[in-house]
Amino acid sequence: MKHKLYNILTGQKKQAKKSFAVLVDPDKVDNQRLDELIGLAESSGVDYFFLGGSLVVSNHLDECVLHLKANTRIPVILFPGSPSQLSRHADALLYLSLISGRNPELLIGQHVISAPAVRQSGIEIMPTGYMVVDGGAPTTVSYISNAAPIPADKNEIAVCTAMAGEMLGMKLIYMDAGSGARRPISEEMIASVANNIDVPLIVGGGITTPEKAYRNCVAGADILVVGNAIEKDINLIREISAAIHQAPMTV
Ligand code: 1GP
Prior knowledge:
By secondary structure, the protein is of the alpha/beta class. The protein has one domain: TIM Barrel (Alpha-Beta Barrel). The protein is built from ten helices and eight strands.
């Protein structure tokens, strides 16, 4: 198995460096938009592009990955909403298991079905414990996953879920309030989880301001993901990236 990108992620964590991932939904971009995103991302020091969505309707994921790979050195990491969202041209795949839910299909079922294709793609696999946290309103991910999110104020459930994920061998924990969440995950919950795991912690969902991104980093998030807010105002890339990269170190 390849570990190149994962080693970079853990190296960053060891140095307490925070990272910024811009989430791109292939359904919502054309090449011109991708070029704009690349330009701003490169000049702002964005660390990763995450590619995917709960509902990718169009068929141009591959095209999107190839365009990014041809035009930027920023790594492209797949964040798939379903097993069909696979492109062997990407740098890595977040191999998600929805450990906050009790839907066997998303815990293991879809993995069994797609395992041969994933293995054959040769892509770097990053086993990820995916935890959906209530963001104040049903989001696409909470609806599609058919699984109850972790209540926003139940920090102890989040901690135990993340600990279990790590002990089961997950190499990353991704806490997500869902795209466009009304309420992003609280700093208290992020800190509680971060203090109880050693693997890198990804946080996303409903982050719309540089201030919130900064506070999440201080609380202990290692990688911040922003999608929706950037779709609305692409210039936020610059401010959010600056906030994340100046966040003081947390240990
Ligand atoms: C959603 O964590 C991502 O899965 C990002 O959420 O689109 O709300 O930034 P937003």
